[in-house]
Write a structure and sequence with these properties.
Elements: H1 2-39, E1 44-45, H2 47-51, H3 53-58, E2 62-67, E3 71-79, E4 84-92, E5 97-105, H4 110-116, H5 119-122, E6 135-137, E7 146-148, H6 154-176, E8 198-202, E9 207-211, H7 212-215, E10 221-228, E11 234-241, H8 244-250, E12 260-265, E13 270-274, H9 275-280, E14 284-286, E15 288-289, E16 292-293, E17 302-304, E18 317-323, E19 333-336, H10 337-340, E20 347-351, E21 354-360, H11 361-365, E22 376-381, E23 386-390, H12 391-395, E24 399-401, E25 409-411, E26 424-428, E27 432-435, H13 437-440, E28 447-448, E29 453-456, H14 457-464, E30 473-478, E31 482-487, E32 495-499, E33 502-506, E34 511-520, H15 521-525
Parallel strand pairs: 6-7, 8-18, 19-27
Antiparallel strand pairs: 1-2, 2-3, 3-4, 4-5, 8-9, 10-11, 11-15, 12-13, 12-18, 14-17, 15-16, 19-34, 20-21, 21-24, 22-23, 22-26, 24-25, 26-27, 28-29, 29-32, 30-31, 30-34, 32-33, 33-34
């Protein structure tokens, strides 16, 4: 009987090994077929280069090397965000240039993998010099070997770049006997995280770091609630963790002493919590969701705020900034976007394969009379979503995309997918407001006529946050920089007419034609 069991075990091992070999042979021949399709039927597999001690040490991502009379096809890999990204790089031996790049397999999150496998991204490698490594860049290709990353997919993009550079290093050694710098087969965690197990709280006077183990020592609450996403999706969830107010209390800090709080994630996402949210909402530092530890991609925790939209449920929390004072908005000037950016050179932002006209926020802010550095850049979308960013954040590499999908939309290389404010109707600093005419008609009810959408000027100023005192005068700037003063009492009979992104102003006794800016007259005298 014992011998029979040994016999069955041996048979199982043999069968298992046969299945393993069959599966791997199948993948091998499938990939070899792909290689033949790009470099020709007559190919040689270079096994010696794979076994070379230098290659194994300096290019650990190497898998297979094929060559024909005039081309080389090299299969490499690099560990990305969730697993290895396997890449086929084809090189023209005579021209010493990359011919094509192809993703063979990957384990990346579907929404990211879709884009790194898109031809518009892979085509960025075509015709790159094989003698020099490629360099990933976040926004703009300033040098010949620069590869613009997929927006919001930094790690996955770098994994492809590393795989290609691994192939280039092997090719240079194989054909030219040139040794190159080492290319890692893994993307270091510090590229996508600062610290996945802790976060910092700043009060202005003191700063301290809290790790997730310490969090578990605080009183934990468990709450069944609903996550409301901006897409309209509602997700029932159970969250567990301590209240932010309780953590602060143990540090002798009263949450009610602050006017607001900024939450920042490791991915650069930022959300401003108002004083009302701080004082009247449960802000849970959730490290357990649906009775399970928080998933890897959301560590160290995800903030949960019942009764608030998901934009405030910041994941990967890295920093909490408590503000003793937040400058109030006092809008003194209202600008039509197209007129405001006149003279600013647009940047054509690469957004998932489309090059869309965009304008750098820093250049827009430079046109304002005053920008309070402690204030916030606030965006309001047509669906009512209001999102705040710090002025410091939007000054650097931050754009408003005005063409293409979901425009107008804020965009920056640091954003992860889904972090943008889509269909922006208006944005404000402390003193200035800017609106997109066609979007504003979706926010303010008006009359649709052959002339265009007619909206009360008072309603527009109110939506922008411009408060007009009875004794106030407005300075209307219209065609060819003409100016006209309007008294507050005239607002009741003033309309703006929006058609084809153009904005006209009509009062009870005049039609001023196309306007560009409305300013408080007192603002000009300050």
């Amino acid at each position: 009987m014992k011998n029979r069991w040994i016999y069955f075990v041996i048979i199982a091992i043999i069968v298992g090994a046969a299945v393993y070999v069959t599966i791997n042979n199948s993948a091998y021949w499938s990939e070899k077929k792909i290689v033949r399709s790009v470099i020709g039927d007559s190919i040689n597999e270079n096994l010696d280069i794979i076994a070379d001690k230098y290659v194994k040490e300096y290019f650990p991502g190497i898998e297979r090397v094929y060559s024909s009379s005039d081309k080389s096809a090299i299969i490499t890999h690099c560990l990305g965000y969730k697993g290895p990204v396997r890449v086929l790089t084809v090189i023209d031996n005579a021209k010493k240039q990359v011919l094509s790049v192809r993703i063979l397999t990957d384990n990346e999150t579907a929404e990211y993998a879709e884009h790194i496998k898109s031809q518009w991204f892979l085509d960025r490698f075509a015709n790159k010099e094989a003698l020099v490594n490629c360099v990933m860049t976040a926004l703009e290709a300033k040098n010949a070997q620069d590869i613009i990353q997929v927006t919001g997919a930094t790690v996955s993009s770098q994994a492809v770049v590393n795989s290609v550079n691994c192939a280039l290093g092997v090719w240079r050694y194989m054909l030219l006997e040139v040794k190159s710098e080492k290319v890692a087969d893994v993307i270091p965690q510090e590229m996508w995280q600062k610290d996945e197990n802790s976060f910092v709280i700043n009060t202005g006077e003191q700063s301290f770091r809290i790790d997730t183990d310490e969090l578990k020592q605080y009183e934990t609450i468990t709450l069944d609630t609903v996550l409301h996403k901006t897409t309209g999706t509602k997700i029932n969830t159970r969250v567990q963790g301590p209240l932010l107010s309780e953590v602060l209390k143990q540090k002798s800090i009263d949450i009610n002493a602050f006017k607001g709080a900024g939450l920042t994630g490791r991915d650069g996402y930022y959300a401003l919590l108002s004083e009302d949210i701080l004082k009247n909402r449960s802000i849970i530092l959730g490290y357990m969701y649906d009775d399970k530890p928080i998933i890897e991609s959301e560590k160290p925790l995800r903030v949960a705020i019942p009764d608030e939209m998901g934009v405030y449920w910041v994941m990967m929390l890295s920093q909490v900034d408590l503000y003793e004072d937040i400058p109030e908005k006092d809008i003194k000037a209202l600008h039509v976007f197209d007129a405001l950016v006149n003279g600013i050179e647009p940047y054509y932002y690469e957004y998932y394969g489309s090059k869309d006209k965009s304008y750098e926020i820093g250049k827009i802010l430079a046109k304002f009379i005053n920008v309070n550095q402690k204030g916030f850049f606030t965006m309001t979308s047509t669906d009512g979503l209001v999102k705040n960013e710090t002025i410091a954040m939007v000054r650097e590499r931050y754009f408003i995309k005005t063409e293409g999908l979901d425009a107008p939309m804020n965009i920056t290389p640091n954003f992860k997918l889904g972090m943008n404010v889509k269909n922006i109707a208006l944005f404000t600093t402390t003193d200035d407001a800017v609106f997109f005419p066609s979007m504003l008609t979706q926010v303010i009810a008006g009359d649709d006529t052959d002339e265009g959408s007619i909206i009360k000027l008072a309603d527009v100023l109110n939506a922008a946050g411009m408060k007009i005192e009875p004794s106030e005068e407005l300075n209307i700037i219209y065609e060819n920089d003409k100016e006209k003063l309007m008294k507050a009492e005239e607002l009741a009979n003033a309309d703006i007419i929006i058609k084809d992104q153009k904005v006209r102003l009509r009062t009870a006794d005049a039609d001023l034609g196309e306007i560009t800016t409305i300013k408080k007259a007192s603002y000009l005298r300050e």
